[in-house]
């Protein structure tokens, strides 16, 4: 089904609501199944339980690879652009990708891995990362990709939570001018991970690494031992495809579980629809495969659609702030999808970094991960899109698996900063704080979803109770997103930001509780409260208030110790921008920290703090204000 006009969009939306089973059942026919599904949807948000296409059988890699070999074997599937512009790019055809995936899948099998086994992947943005992901899916193993910027502790926690049998990593990674010792970090993590029997190491940087005999295997040796014939494991539609961790309101990351059939149908449909991908287009999503954006819109969605997808190893600022635009010109990118934080950073650089390059190949732009401010939207539109490319501001989550609210490129009339309208099948509901549905337009509330969609996460790995409590208990019968949202007079949606204890920093989801518990581990700290405050480039930055055991003599020293602790335990992305040492925190009589007050102080908006009389000790607020950074 193609949506090429607003009328078709409205019609498709109407169909999807009136008869969802027909709508999704029809769409599912565009895929290769071992057994076509006859049952389309079973669901109950109270349990909560959702099954899509439940008697269908398939393997997603046959949809991403095998079926394209008939007419697209020589078409490029992946263009890989390395970190360093001096190194050659790679063009990998569908045939080559198929062969390499099958070969690596045989490596996994040779070491005893198979359906249902969990495999952790901790790799740089090299083609082998996509190959490892697809190889897991080929044999029915469940991949858990951990972003290669996470620390050894964060990696170990994720490996242990999923009880992964194997880790796939690299010797090191290049990121801008830095080289990161991935294998060293992995070795540190593995000291705590008894479930891991083998580690496959891809050689990227060629730095010296220690290899543990019997456990550690070189990627390039292993693939020599096998051939490239690997029939796909037949999976039930609701079998696990992958686990991906995301931060939550408590300290422990949540392993979101995605399953095979619904995820495939939804990511493919939304990829084609939102970006209006046409055969021959070159599509580039700048995300890392370590995040859901990379899973759904670098690997699975584009490949299932038979697209050519560009993978970039580097960063936007290396060797200079023109790197993205250089890559656009070099490969003649047509569709470019990035994060507002990158746009804001590039916007600060001199325009000559943009104007040096010919960007005329671009026809569609996209953003994802956080609200985009009007200034950044306009800059993107004028300087990158030359007022000639629709911008699709796509709202979605790790939990939703695919894009939920977004313009359809060239179809939906745009409004800067608005994610605009829900995609077909997505039934949005705004709730007020008391849990009543807000019906009208020109209103603001908490964003919920009232009906299942095929790519929704089915559970939190090993903790269905937490899944229910986090997403389905705030408003009974609805999935609660955790976001605040406006609906304007035209029925357009605009996400206003998180309403829970998650902060989106540079598009990364960070739980305040997770950072607090790390800082609390410092011997000099008794208690911490972490909040977000607005930041020009990152969208939000992190402000930590820490109560110390005794007067701090050397604040800078303690700050740098805390920063290292956070960096080592979670990763550099979670480091607070400001740490204020405070004698106490504003707490209610029941002991709850009033974060609203701390957020205002951190934002230097403390003229009117509202009613603070419910605090146990209101005087603490004055103390904190005096020391604000
Ligand atoms: O707050 C919303 C914000 O990112 C959250 C989801 O983060 P994550 O699971 O890491 O997935 C990010 C990539 C899909 C959402 O709850 N968010 C995501 N996209 C947008 C957004 N906020 C505003 N506008 C967006 N387009």
Write up this protein.
The protein contains 20 helices and 31 strands. The radius of gyration is 24 Å and the shape is globular. The N and C termini lie far apart (about 55 Å). The mean pLDDT is about 95. About 30% of the residues lie in helices and about 25% in strands. It folds into two domains: about 5-485, 3-Layer(aba) Sandwich (Rossmann fold); about 505-625, 2-Layer Sandwich (GMP Synthetase, Chain A, domain 3). The protein is an alpha/beta fold and about 625 residues long. Strand 19, helix 15 and strand 20 form a beta-alpha-beta unit. The strands form eight sheets. It has an eight-stranded mixed beta sheet with strand order 12-11-8-6-7-14-15-24, sandwiched between helices. The chain has a seven-stranded mixed beta sheet with strand order 5-4-17-16-18-19-20, with helices on both faces. A five-stranded antiparallel beta sheet has the order 22-21-23-25-26. The structure holds adenosine-5'-monophosphate-propyl ester (PRX). Adenosine-5'-monophosphate-propyl ester binds near residues 368, 394 and 396.
């Amino acid at each position: 089904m193609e949506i090429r006009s607003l009328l078709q969009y409205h019609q498709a939306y109407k169909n999807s609501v009136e008869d969802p089973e027909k709508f999704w059942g029809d769409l599912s026919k565009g895929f290769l199944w071992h057994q076509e599904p006859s049952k389309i949807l079973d669901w109950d948000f109270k349990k909560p339980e959702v099954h899509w296409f439940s008697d269908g059988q398939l393997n997603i890699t046959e949809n991403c690879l095998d079926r394209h070999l008939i007419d697209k074997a020589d078409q490029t599937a992946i263009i890989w652009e390395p970190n360093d512009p001096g190194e050659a790019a790679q063009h990998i055809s569908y045939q080559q990708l198929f062969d390499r995936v099958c070969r690596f899948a045989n490596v996994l099998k040779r070491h005893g891995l198979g359906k249902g086994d969990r495999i952790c992947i901790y790799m740089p943005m090299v083609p082998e990362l996509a190959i490892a992901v697809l190889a897991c899916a080929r044999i029915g193993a469940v991949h858990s990709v951990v972003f290669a910027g996470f620390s050894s502790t964060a990696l170990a926690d994720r490996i242990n939570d999923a009880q992964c049998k194997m880790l796939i990593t690299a010797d090191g990674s290049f990121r801008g001018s830095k080289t990161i010792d991935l294998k060293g970090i992995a070795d540190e993590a593995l000291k705590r991970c008894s479930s891991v029997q083998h580690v496959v190491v891809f050689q990227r940087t060629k730095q010296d690494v220690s290899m543990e005999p019997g456990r550690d295997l070189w990627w390039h040796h292993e693939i020599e031992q096998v051939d490239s014939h690997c029939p796909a494991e037949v999976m039930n539609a609701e079998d696990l495809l992958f686990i991906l961790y995301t931060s939550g309101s408590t300290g422990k990351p949540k392993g979101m579980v995605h399953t095979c059939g619904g995820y495939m149908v939804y990511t493919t449909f939304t990829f084609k629809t939102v970006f209006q991908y046409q055969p021959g287009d070159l599509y580039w999503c700048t995300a890392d495969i370590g995040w859901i954006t990379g899973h759904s819109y670098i690997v699975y969605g584009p490949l299932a659609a038979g697209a050519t997808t560009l993978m970039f190893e580097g960063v936007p600022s290396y060797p200079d702030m023109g790197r993205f635009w250089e890559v656009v010109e070099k490969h003649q990118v047509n569709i470019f999808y990035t994060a507002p934080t990158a746009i804001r950073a590039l916007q600060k650089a001199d325009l000559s970094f943009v104007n040096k390059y010919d960007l005329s190949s671009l026809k569609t732009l996209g953003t994802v991960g956080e609200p985009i401010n009007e200034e950044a939207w306009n800059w993107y539109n004028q300087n990158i899109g030359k007022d000639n490319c629709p911008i699709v501001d796509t709202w979605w989550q790790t939990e939703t698996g695919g894009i939920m609210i977004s313009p359809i490129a060239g179809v939906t009339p745009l409004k800067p900063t608005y994610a605009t309208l829900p995609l077909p099948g997505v039934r949005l509901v705004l709730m007020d704080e008391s849990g009543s549905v807000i019906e009208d337009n020109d209103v603001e509330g908490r964003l919920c979803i009232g009906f299942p969609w095929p790519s929704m996460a089915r559970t939190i790995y090993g903790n269905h109770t937490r899944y229910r409590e986090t997403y389905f208990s705030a408003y009974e019968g609805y999935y609660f997103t955790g976001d605040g949202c406006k609906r304007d007079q035209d029925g357009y949606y605009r996400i206003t930001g998180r309403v829970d204890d998650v902060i989106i920093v540079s598009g990364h989801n960070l739980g305040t509780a997770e950072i607090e518990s790390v800082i609390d581990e410092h011997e000099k700290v008794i208690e911490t409260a972490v909040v977000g405050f607005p930041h020009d480039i990152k969208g939000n930055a992190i402000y930590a208030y820490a109560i110390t055991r005794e007067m701090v003599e050397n604040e800078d020293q303690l700050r740098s110790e805390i920063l290292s602790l956070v960096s080592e335990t979670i990763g550099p992305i979670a480091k607070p921008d400001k740490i204020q040492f405070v004698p106490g925190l504003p707490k209610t009589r029941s002991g709850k920290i009033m974060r609203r007050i701390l957020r205002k102080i951190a934002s230097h908006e403390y003229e009117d703090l509202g009613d603070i009389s419910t605090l146990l000790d209101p005087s603490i607020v004055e103390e904190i204000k005096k020391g604000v950074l």
